[in-house]
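Working notes for the structural subgroup meeting. M.R. asked for a predicted model of this chain before we commit to crystallization trials. I am recording the input and output together here so anyone reviewing the notebook later can reproduce the run.

Input as submitted:
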Amino acid sequence: MLTDIEIAQSAKMKPIMEIARDLGIDEEDVELYGRYKAKLSEQLYKKLDKKDDGKLILVTAVNPTPAGEGKTTVSVGLAQAMNKSGRNAVLALREPSLGPVFGIKGGAAGGGYSQVVPMEDINLHFTGDMHAITAANNLLCAAIDNHIHQGNELDIDVRRIIFKRCLDMNDRALRNIVVGMGGKLNGYPREEGFQITVASEIMAILCLASDLTDLKKRISNILIGYSRSNKPVYAGELGVQGAMTALLKDALKPNLVQTLENTPALIHGGPFANIAHGCNSVRATKLALKLGDYCITEAGFGSDLGAEKFFDIKCRFAGLKPSCVVLVATARALKYNGGVPKNELLNENDEALKKGIVNLGVHIENMKKFGVPVVVAINRHRKDRESEIQIIEDYCRKYDVPVSMTEIFKKGGEGGIDLADKVVDAIENGKADFKPLYDERRSIKEKLEIIAKEIYRADGVDFTPDALKNISEIESLGYGNIPVCVAKTQYSLSDDPAKLGKPENFRITVRELKLSSGAGFVVALTGSILTMPGLPKVPSALNIDCDGDGNITGLF
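Returned structure, recorded in C-alpha cell form:
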C-alpha cells in the first residue's frame, strides 16, 4: 500500500497556468511560484466583481480523535467528485503549519487519492506566507522594544505588553522567556513569550482582511499593551503598520494549486481552530465562489470549534451565506467516543459505536441551528464492517439528514460521487436560511453563555477573577460588541479532553480573555489550551528525510 507522499509524488500534475486558464484566468493575473504553484493577482478580484457567486459548502466533522477523521481528505475528494460528475467546483483550504507537520498532527493536504499537490511544497514552505506573517508579527514586537529603549514616548508599561513574538514551530521552551538581558545596550529586560504563528493575531487579520487597505487598518488597530497610566496603546501609534503591510503584500494573495485529479484549489491562511478562528482566508473563499459554481471549504477540528467560528466570525464579517454543511464521521471516531482505546479501534465493537454515536447527534443538531442543510459523510476505512456503516446510516435517518458512505481515500473523486449528488440535492431542495448563533451586540458574558449552552451543551460558564477583570477592561475600551472566539480543546465538546461522547452536567471555565482588536474578535481561553504547542516524545520530524537529489521521504 502506497504512502500519501508516494501517491502524491506519482501524480500527473498539469502546469498551474493550464489550471488557471481552465478557470478563465488570464496569464497576467497569475504570478508563478515555479511550475505548479501560483499566486493570483489583486486585479483578478476587480475583473470578477460582477460575476455571480457559486454555492458555498462547508466541510466539518465530529470531535477529532487520535485516529484522524479525514476532514481535509473528504473536502478534496468531494471537490474531485463534483468535477468528475460534470460540476464546476473549486476547493478553498487552509495552509499547513510547520508545527504539526514536524510534530504529531500531520499536514493539511488530504490523504490517499484525495490530496492537493505538490504535497511536499504545500506542507513545507509553500509560497512563504507563514514566514511573511512571522516576520510582520516580529517586526511589531521589535518596534515595541525599540520604542521603549529609545525613550518610551508612549510611556508603555513593560509589565503590560500583551502582543507576543511568534514562530511557526512547536517549541515549548519559548512559551515564557526574558528579553533585554545583557546590559543597557540590549534594551529593557522584561518577561516575554512566543506563540505559534498560526495563533498570531496577524494570521487572523490576514485571513479576515478584504484588501490591502483593510489589512493596514486592522494592523493599526492591534492592541499591543497599556501605558503606565492605564491607557491602551495600539500598533498604529508605533508607526510600523506600513512596513508590516509591505511584508504581507504578497502573502495576502491566495495560492493556486491542484488536486491529484487536477481540480483547482486555493490554499491560503491557516489559523488553528482550537486557539484561533480556524478558517482559510476570506479572500480565497470569495475568489473560489467567483471562479466555480461550487466552493468547497473546511473549518478546523470538530464543528463545535471550527464550524461555529466559521459561521459566527468569518461568515458574519464577510457576508457569506453557506448553502450546505458536510459533517464528516468515521466508525473509528465514534467507537473512540464510546470508550474504545486507540489501539483497539479496528476491532469489532458495535456496542461502543452505539454508545459513542451520540457525539455525531450533537454535531448534527448544532449545525441545524445555523439554518443550513446537513449531509453526513461517512469516511470509510478499509477495515470498517458493513454492520458499522449500517448503524451510522440508521442513526442519521433518525435525524432526517442524508448520509453518504464515501471511499475517497481509496478511490479519489470516484469514491465521492454519491456524496456530491446528495450535497447538490440538499442545496437545491434544502432551502438554506443561514443565521449566526448570537447577536454580537450582546455582552461578552452572554455570547459565551450562548455558545457554551447551545453548542457545547454545558450547564453554564464560570469566569475566573482574571477573566472578569479582562472582560471589564475590554468592554471599557468599547469592544464588548464583537464576536467571541473560544480557545478550547478539540477532543471534547467540553473544556476537558477526557470527557468524550456527549458530556453532561458540566460547566465551561473561562480563565482569561484577550482582545484581538485588529482581527475584530475577543479570544476566550478555557482549560489548558496553549498558544505555543510542544513537540511530542517521538515527533514526525524523526521520520522525514531528504536525499542528495532533493527527494523527500517520510512526510506522511
